[in-house]
Amino acid sequence: GVGRGEGAAGVGAGGVVWAGVAQLAKRRCELWWVGTEGFAGVAAAMDALGVQLECARVGLVQEAQDRGVGDQSSSPSSAAWLMEHSFHLEPVDAARTVDLARLCRLPANQVMAAAVSGGTVTVRKAMTALRQLRQVEHDLAPGKREEALASLTLMAQSGYDRHVVAIGRALMALVGADR
Question: Alpha helices, DSSP H only, in 28-144?
Fold first, then answer.
């Protein structure tokens, strides 16, 4: 694998990521040179970068699983392997990432898989949307699961945390329980 030293020197695919880490570390103080009117743009860019990194980690887990990386290591699971190599990742986030990687492989979750592949939804929001769908999918009319997943995915992409009540109402309407 690409170690920290190799990555910083630009060797291999990991080098691209390490180069970005090095640039951000080196130029972080420049972020505050913008006028106060530029802070919103910096916050939005940081948010987009964070989502991209989360989604890239899901893709990394999928590739590692495809290539048997975890099986070749002494790690008991994919989440444990990820934790070994992600020093700042919390165990719950590693578990969510591995679960999302697995769920995105299922044909029924293609809509969410596309959002994750495109880097447009956080791991936590994707897992929340899939969990919400799982809670009601048995009540959905035939053919409505994909529509429900598409709606939930769109809500997850657009920052639905502020609209939890609306999500519940939308789900209930999809299952015909709206009153």
Answer: 39-66, 69-72, 78-85, 91-104, 110-117, 123-136
